[in-house]
Amino acid sequence: MAQNDDDLDSLVRKRIRALRVAQGWSLEELAGRARLSQSTLSRIENGQRRLALDSLVTLARALDTTLDQLVENDTDDVVTSPMIDGAHGLMRWTIKGDPGMSVVRQRMTEPPPDNPARMRAHPGREWLVVLSGTAILLLGQRRFRIETNQAAEFPTMLPHAIGTAGGPCEILGIFDREARRGHQRAESGADI
């Protein structure tokens, strides 16, 4: 058990330093934001000072993260097994940090529906990234052309439909909990 504690301790210290460096902050800047002395922060990062809960809470807040994320066990960091739905051409996995969010990768070959009655609306929010090809997003009365490496974010209470423009495209859709439920209910039809 002590070995696992030492490993977690080391991991938390590395995360603090990595988050600080990723923000482009010096020891002095993070220490000021966390209301710690620069030497205290340096000793925390270098393992020369015990990790105290109150310091971790303060550092997490200053680094714009949560205590849970700061002390999360590294064995839980990687999700490697998405669910494959071959019948609908979908690859789906849950986003680890928020169990309510899910990601779907889909290859689309059909244009969006001509009939506005086939557009769906449901509670939630959706994000869409085009991995290859061109997608057409119908959103209410508007039509958006989304090219490779472009993205869109929209509330799913607006009637919406997604299709291709002149050939197959591959998209990555990210759904919050409510949007995911709306798509699960309509999945027998299978358009995202």
Report on the architecture of this protein.
The chain is an alpha+beta fold and 192 residues long. It has helices spanning 2-22, 27-34, 38-46, 53-62, 67-71, 177-186, and strands at residues 83-85, 90-94, 102-108, 125-132, 135-139, 142-146, 151-155, 160-164, 169-175. The strands form two sheets. It has a six-stranded antiparallel β-sheet with strand order 1-2-3-9-4-7. It has a three-stranded antiparallel β-sheet with strand order 6-5-8, with no helix packed on it. Helix 2 packs across helix 3 (38-46). The longest helix is centred in the first third of the chain and has 21 residues, at 2-22. The radius of gyration is 22 Å and the shape is elongated. The N and C termini lie far apart (46 Å).
